[in-house]
Amino acid sequence: AACALAWLTPGLAHDSLWLHDESFHQVVTRHVAERPFEPSLYGDPVHDTPEMYRDYWNVRAWLVKPVGGFWAGALMMALVGKVPLAFRLAGLLGHLLSVLTVYLLARRFAGRALAFLAALGLAALPLAWTLTQARFISDSLDLQLAGWLCLAMLALFLTVDRRSWRWAAVAGALTGAAVLVKFVLALTPLGVAAVLWALGAVGFCRGPRLRELAVMALTAVTVALPWNLYTALKWPVAFYQGTVGEVLMHLQNAGPAASHPQWRRPPDAVFNEILTGLSAPLPATLSMLAGVWLAVRAWRSRDVVLVGLAAWRWATWLGHSLPQI
Question: Which of 139-148, 160-169, 232-241, 254-263 has the lowest mean pLDDT?
Answer without folding.
Answer: 254-263
